[in-house]
Amino acid sequence: MAEKLASLWPEITLFIATCIVMVVGLSPSAAVRRTCGLISGVALAAAGILAIGTADQAKGLMPGLLPYAKAVIAFVGVLLTMLLTGVVDRFEEEAIEKGSAGFDPLRSTRGEFFAFFLFSMTGLMLCASADSLIWLFLALELTSLPTYVMVAMSSPRQKAKEAAVKYFFLGALGAAVFLYGFALLYGGTGSVHLAEIQTAIAAQAAEGSINPIALTGLVIALLGIAFKIAAVPMHFYAADVYQGAASPVAAMLAFVPKTAGFITIILLCAAVGWNHGPMGDQLPEIVRVTLWVMAALTMIVGNVLAWLQSSVKRMLAYSSVAHSGYMLVGVIAGPGDAFTSSGVAAVLFYLLAYGIMNTGAFAVVSALETRQAARTDTGELVHDEADDINAFRGLCRHNPVLGWSMVLCALSLLGFPLTLGFFGKLPLFTAGIDAGEIPLVVVLGINSAIAAFYYLRLVALPLFEHPGDEAEAYVESPNHGRRVVGVVAAGGVLVLTVLASPLMDAAFDASADAPLPVAESEPPGEQTASLD
Amino acid sequence: MLTDVMNSLPMLTLAAADGAKGSGPLIESWAAAPGWVLLIPLLPLLAAVLNVGCAIAGVKTKLPAVITIVSLAAAFVLTALAYLSFSGETRIVTGWSWFDLSWGDGPGQSMKADFGFYIDNLSLLWMLFVTGLATLIATYASEYMEHDVGQGYNRFFFAFALFVFSMSCLVLGDNLLMLYLGWEGVGLCSYLLIGYFYKKPEAVAAAKKAFIVNRIGDLGLAIGVFLTFVHFGTLEYAELFSSEQLAGYIDAVKAGNAGDVPLMAQLIPVFLMIGAFGKSAQFPLYVWLPDAMEGPTPVSALIHAATMVTAGVYLIARFYPVFLVSEWALPVVAWIGAFTAFLAATIGMAQFDIKRIMAYSTVSQLGYMFAGLALLSSTGGVFHVLTHAFFKALLFLCCGAVMHGFAGQLDLRKLSGLWSQPGWRVVSVGMLIGCINLAGVPFTAGYFSKDMILAEAFVTQGPGYGLIGWLLLLTAGMTAYYTFRVFFRVFVGPVRYEPGDDDHGSSDHDHEHDQSDAHGHDGHAHTDHAQHPFHPHPPRLAINGVLATLSVLAVLAAGLYFVTPENKGWVGSMLKDSTAAQVYFDGESDHPTRAGLFLIDGDAHHRDHAHADDHADHGEHAAHGSFLGFDPHKVMYYVSAIVGAIGIGFAAWAHGPRGAVSGFLGDRTEAATSRMDAVARSFGPIPKWAEHKWYVDEFYHFLFRAPLWVLSHIFHAIDKLLVDGLVNLIGYVPRAFGRLAQPGQSGVLHGYALSMAGGVAVILLVVMMVAG
Amino acid sequence: MLIVLLILLPLICAGLIVFNPKGQAKYIATGATLVSVVIGAIALIQFDFSQAALDQMVVKAPWVPALGLELSLAVDSVSLLLIALTVLLGPICVIGSFTAVKHDVKTYYAWLLVLQSAMIGVFAARDLVLFYICFEFTLIPMYILISLYGSANRKKAATKFFLYTFTGSVIALAGFVYVVWFHASLEGNSWTFDLAALGESARMMEPAQQGWILLALLSGFAVKVPLFPVHTWLPLAHTEAPTAGSVILAGVLLKLGTYGIYKFALPYAPEAVVEYAPLIGVLSVVGIVYAGLICWVQTDVKKLVAYSSVSHLGFCVLGLVAINSVGVAGSVMYMISHGFSTGALFLMIGMMYERYHTRSMREVGGLGSTMPVWSSFMVFFVMASVGLPGLNGFVSEIMCLMGTFQSYGWTGEGGAHPGGTLGVLGPWFAFFAGTGMIVAAMYLLIMTGKMVWGKYREPEGHHEHDELPTDLNAREIGLLIPLAAGCLIFGLYPKPLLNAIEAPVNETVAYYEGLVPVPELEAGMTTVANEGDHDTEHGEGDH
Amino acid sequence: MPDLVVSTLAQADFPEVMHAITLYHYLLVSAVMFCLGLIGFVTRRNLIIMFLCTELMFQAAGIALIAFGRFYLDYTGQVFVIFVLTVAAAEAALALALVVLLFRRKESLDGTAWAVLKG
């Protein structure tokens, strides 16, 4: 037990911080109340450090995954914390400051908001630590449930409620699906422990065929988890929810459930192993086909829908769908004996890259708001966010910092060379080709090009246009944390290219515990079948 | 003495190598030429550069003319020195290495072309008259162009000097790429000079046309160059003409096995020929030359009459051996030449612009030259080049003087009686000398040179060569007619004139008038100076001097025919050591038509039709043609003289003064004009068609330019709509997919739930089917 | 080190521009580009041309070892010459923009410098990913230059330019990665992006694999060249780009495509190139004639020159797929010479545009009388572009055509055809491409006829430029003189260039030894049919 | 799906007593329940009923888990179900809170009423 706890110090830290935040949020002193965000950030940072510090304590199916995943989660979590500050309590605090209202602990939601956030992050970290299906299920639910609430409370606008409804009900549907898959997986292998599942499946495979119930369960579980990563066919909610929620929460939604989903998928696939198929170098055919179809459709659907959007948040939502598709290519490719050939490592690295650049893009979106606060139909004051793409016209002119942050993040999302996005995508290419998934890599390439069409608008409008009336209606939010996040992210997509190598090594180490395919480098001639 | 000194000058580079010994390479060996020979092309280049300097410095004097004349004269002197010191052995001088790329050590595995010059009799012959005439015409132009001093003067002499440089490269170049350089270089200068009066749309159009039509020929030449390289593995004359391969082909042709020569080798002359037709304005590429008369007259004289247009003749003369390896190359040249000669003469007869008449005459005479070369009389062809250069330059310069004096008037209906005008005597005499040469009046240079070709046309056997002879003979008569038509209309008769539009260069090309209109014009012509402020200004010293000199030279050129008669004149003696050496029939051959060609080394089997007593032999040959049963060589002197006389007589009858004997003093009568009208009417619409140049330009426009123009528009539309449209369509495909997928995003919770559940089910089914 | 300096100097100066006052931007940029020229000259001097095919001035630094990436820079003679072209055009573009660019000057010059760095990076990169990064990164500055400083339709043009070329090159990246993977799988899973190592492995691929690789690489490079039918972005981009942008686009950026084919497609997929060369050749020839004819009907002078680039680059590609020394060397020469002549044409059109604010040949023309200096240069560069012998265009064009002509199944019988090489194009390709020379003369002379000759026409409401004289000023003439000198020198004395590129070109061509099938002797093509008795006699006659 | 289960059962060596009601039957019930839940979720408009349908699906998984647990004769399945119930309870709380919130806004529990965000 104690051994197990040793690797859970980050989660424990976060949990304690959650409790503290809940209490602090109720403090009558504004100064104390304001420390909620700070405490969350510090806790996340501490969790990240602890995760690295307790790396050698890590247990589970892929112990190497723990420190990397948790550190990434903590880092992006810190950025998200800065974004989330001020989402729910801005007008409340302003009113208190002006004296027009008193502090009413019963109406204040600040503490809960951060607590939910930290809960979610805790769940996310727990995902990485999971060693059984039960744990995985609980961690996934712990990740998701708070986000439902956060969406609902993120904005007084009606659409936030709508987003919450859709998110919650469809989320429950998704959860039921993957739970059912877990049940079947348990049925097919006789265990809920990932390690034991791995042994069981290996034994079954050695005997000739894997239990069909296990495989069916795995496929259904993957389809259920597709909800978390917003992959086809479970992507429908994404755009509506991202648009409805406040941008900081949308940024969180684009990172947190997605990371949880990918960690779960990687763990499940690792349990099954990439050593099946005729060549002994891929997932069981049925799983591979599932992921293949999901990946291809996800990339295509995400990109073509993103193209049509004039709402930046919807565009980023659909692009987040597409990015899940890219990462699925890495999952299909599976681990390798080098970073370049390890799809799992590529996915893990991409998660980091995506977390940074996407958070940066959302940070810019959330940093812009209407000059005049408007009243909602329930009477609350709100500064609406810049959602329409025309709000970003000429941003580089009247707000160069935000403008250039947007340009850089968009270029990175587009996978433009010399940005982190490119270095994230390149390993997906190499791993995909290494795994012989050339058609999928071609689809990936074409989709990167399609993505250019809409990301380029995010580059061109801020950079080249003159701000029109529409853009003049927007000003920078007084919450400068968002600007900082934008700058940090934009800097990150440039600076981390220099540091890419250690990060990639870390990602590779994190993937190293995944079961390697039997025959890694087969003679090249035989691989040509897929080319011809 | 001087040559020795020059020879001792340091040489820039020497390219000396021994030719391979074979059974009969055309060149046994070649030696290095002294470096100063390089100055022949470089001096005009220097002049061109200096003229650019003048333009930059804004020189407002005649300095550019002085520079050009001096440098050209120096080049001429050097050429003369080179000729005098020439030993008969081919010499090469290399300036610098131009192309040099190798991809192996074997033969043909390197592309080498030097900026080098090839000195033999052929190139020296050409350079002598090119530099000589250029010097004279530059002198003429210094006065002719004086109205443009400070404006276009620099530009004119820049292009002029550059032309001589390019022409030198063309003629002297020691490889095919140098030839090509000169070839296009003269094209550029021609372009610049035709378009000299660039504010005139006609001049611009003519310049463009000249360049583009020439480009068509250039493509042929380029392909000929490629074929030569591929087939012989070299671009350099020295290697080419000493190659055993070529010698082998010629041996094979000699042996009657012409069919053994690879087709690729046989195609070389065909493509070279296309180049020659373009530059030398032969059918079907002749259309640019008449239009080129939009340029200043000295340019017409030098470039479009005397020198540049003979480049095609030079090309064929230079590649004569290569032309011999194909059975049908020379007959094609002969037919094209003869046909062009005839066609151009018909058009020339119907024109009213005296410069145009001279232009068509040039085209026609060039046809003679080609026919001459092709009829195995390279001496005749080249001799005609030489004589024609002098008398045609003279004719043009006289026309130019008229144009200069009468404010651009060139219409022969509006000028008359220059002979009687004060100050125009030199011009008139020059014109007369030019005319008698062109018409082939006995004992003039033109008479001898044309005669050689005519005779050979009846002697040489080939496909339809007899007809060629008759065609050329007929053309000779027509030539005499149109030549003297100009002379009689413009220079004799009553003094009448009507000034041209305004200044030089804007001549009135009013071809739309028919003859009756022209008649009316004559009636309105000003006969009294007082009624009109216009006064013609006769030429001054420079122009008159040049005209006089050229007249003398044109007359003296006849004398060349009698220099070394055993070689058929000086030209023959020059050619016999060159690649254009005379080719003969082998009498003993069993092949009656065109078999049995062989090349002789010079003096062995030459045939000399200048000496009638040799001709006895020829009568025995089955291969030897005849002219109505007579030996062509004997009777042609008389026949051509008679034909010429008929032409002149007809011109006198139709256009001449009453009582021609009374010394050109008579008055042109209404009767003569009406006689001409009656004759013209009797031909129906033909004169009209001829005046419109047989509608060849319109035909080309209809056949090539218009379809291409339409095609361009179609391509442009295709590019916009189809090619770019396809791209845009591809860009639209993702959007279309998006539109397809968008209804799924209906925003309704149940719809999402259904889609998700359905999606899961479909994927499960698909997976089960694919993988299960 | 010089190469690193060449890349870093403009970048640093771009940074300086950003942090210095607006008025100094152009001087900093001028200084940077001029110093680059000096560095480039030193590099040319230091380069050992006797070992031209070897990579020299090698700089290697670890970069992303996890991916096998290296910051690996080196030059062979071809790269170095193209770099020299780039740095030479640098100051010309900068100085040429002094009066043309009025707003956002800091952005303008900074991106111009960044663009120069990226282009040099492309030519010097010896690591595939570094190459790709630089290759793609050229898009951004160009995108910005067109979008911000172009004319009316600039945004559409810039977007099309970006997306078109980006899409192509993403697919090329997939091809690259496949090559890298293939190398890794051959070499025991050691991943490297080193160009030299990759080439050797790539040539061991099966023909079918090579075919796919060629397709992938071409989809990246052919768009950039641009080869018919993927050229439609170019006229648009050229027309809308600012002058300096057009100059760089025509001068260097298009060459990235042909350089890519030369550097990657030719050595990586020789068997596929042999197989598909006729197809590529047909596309090139169609492009030459098609684009040439389209030029004819243009009224926008800039669009005309843009289409002429499409036509001209067709020769360049044709020379490359001729895969013999003359053709490939001609093509490399074309890359350099086209930069001079067409770059200069765009520069000149820009100078005219600054004065008359129109590019329509209907509105402005007959400048020979008012702008004699401009007109003289115009005629000169038109002639260079037409391919007049003695100027640079001719050298490259005739070599491309000759290489094409040679590239045929010439079978040497009895010593015939020693100048032929084995190849898959041949005379017909040369002939039809050669008609492009005629078409080029047509449209360029028509342009000259309208712009230079004829009666003076000016657009309505034209008034004198307040800074510029009617004709060119000393600054502008100074810009044109180096280009004109280049045209003249490379036209009259191309030997140093040819000698410099001979070794690397021959090395590339050597990959094709034994790959081109030797055709059966075709009766009628090489020898007149009816062999038989004469044959022996002919043989004897040869001796 | 049933084929798969049958083949699994054929492989498994399970006690005679189970012949009457086999794992197959439990799984069938579970699958039917899951599908019913799904169908209900898709067809019903009332948010509370929709939520109950998800609960049905959760419990379908629960039945499968317990059946498998019984089949393997261990408690893991049951333990899992306890956790599932817990989570379901938490979700129920959340759902109710949300439903109340929504009802306050629109005075309606019709799921289709919320369809502003789309495209």
Structure explained in plain terms:
- The complex is a heterotetramer of chains A (532), B (772), C (543) and D (119).
- With 772 residues, chain B is mostly helical.
- Helix content of chain B is 62%, strand content 4%.
- In chain B, the strands form three sheets. Chain B has a three-stranded mixed sheet. Chain B has a two-stranded antiparallel sheet with strand order 4-5. In chain B, strands 6-7 form a two-stranded antiparallel ribbon.
- In chain B, helix 3 packs antiparallel against helix 4, helix 4 (121-144) packs antiparallel against helix 5 (153-172) and helix 6 runs antiparallel to helix 12.
- Chain C has one domain (2-516).
- The radius of gyration of chain C is 24 Å and the shape is globular.
- Chain C has 20 helices and two strands.
- Chain D is elongated.
- At the A-D interface, helix 8, helix 9, helix 11 and helix 12 of A face helix 1, helix 2, helix 3 and helix 4 of D.
The gist of it:
The complex is a heterotetramer of chains A (532), B (772), C (543) and D (119). With 532 residues, chain A is mainly alpha-helical.
Topology:
The complex is a heterotetramer of chains A (532), B (772), C (543) and D (119).
Chain A: H1 2-6, H2 9-24, H3 30-33, H4 35-53, H5 65-84, H6 90-98, H7 110-129, H8 133-154, H9 158-189, H10 194-207, H11 212-229, H12 236-244, H13 247-272, H14 285-308, H15 312-333, H16 343-367, E1 368-370, E2 374-375, E3 381-382, H17 395-398, H18 400-414, H19 420-434, H20 438-464, H21 469-472, E4 474-476, H22 480-498, H23 500-511, H24 524-527
Antiparallel strand pairs in A: 1-4, 2-3
Chain B: H1 2-7, E1 31-32, H2 39-57, H3 63-84, E2 91-102, E3 110-119, H4 121-144, H5 153-172, H6 176-194, H7 201-232, H8 237-241, H9 244-254, H10 263-279, H11 288-291, H12 297-306, H13 311-318, H14 320-324, H15 329-350, H16 354-374, H17 378-405, E4 415-416, H18 425-439, H19 445-459, H20 465-491, E5 496-497, H21 515-524, H22 541-556, H23 569-575, E6 583-585, E7 597-599, H24 615-620, H25 632-655, H26 670-682, H27 686-691, H28 696-741, H29 749-771
Parallel strand pairs in B: 1-2
Antiparallel strand pairs in B: 2-3, 4-5, 6-7
Chain D: H1 2-11, H2 23-43, H3 47-72, H4 76-106
